[in-house]
């Protein structure tokens, strides 16, 4: 046995090492940070992550490997959520208010976007909603607009992707079509009001 094989044997297999880190982390971990911690290339790690994901999915294991942008997380498989809830009966997380959800939708679909642009679309002030979404780490400042006053530009975070179970922004559902103008009735069918 050569030195490299001895080191690898003492460290355990790559799949087990990945599982251990993701299990302990409990939240999404950046792929490049994981590769660095494991002292492997990103390409080697990506190959193993795909193999693990497929293995978990094929066996319908109790956990799944989830991707959120450049992050990966070990998560409970949704198929078994009823059993988990039955045992743990977790306190429900406070949901986002209607105003916060509307603000988040504008940011998600129009990003990068300024506060004024969000307010123009929503038709109401959005300071509180934007601050609340930033506190929940669903949105963040992504820069400054090259305009008078250099207003802050907002965009979504990887936590936003994780919260809504999206891999990337391309997974957002398509924007609903704006309702078209109601068809005009034929003016000949309207009764004369003036005799």
* Strand elements, count: 6
Given helix and strand content, the structural type is alpha+beta
Number of helices: 9
The proportion of strand residues reads 5-15%
The averaged pLDDT comes out at 82
Task: Provide a concise account of the structure shown.
With 195 residues, this protein is of the alpha+beta class. The chain is 46% helix and 14% strand. The chain has 2 domains: 79 residues, Arc Repressor Mutant, subunit A; 74 residues, Arc Repressor Mutant, subunit A (Orthogonal Bundle).
Structure description:
- The protein is of the alpha+beta class and 195 residues long.
- 46% of the residues lie in helices and 14% in strands.
- It has helices at residues 3-11, 14-25, 31-38, 42-58, 81-88, 98-110, 115-122, 127-135, 158-163; strands at residues 29-30, 63-68, 71-76, 113-114, 139-144, 152-156.
- The strands form two sheets. The chain has a three-stranded antiparallel beta sheet with strand order 1-3-2. A three-stranded antiparallel beta sheet has the order 4-6-5.
- Strand 2 (63-68) and strand 3 (71-76) form a beta hairpin.
- The longest helix has 17 residues, at 42-58.
- The chain is globular and about 55 Å long.
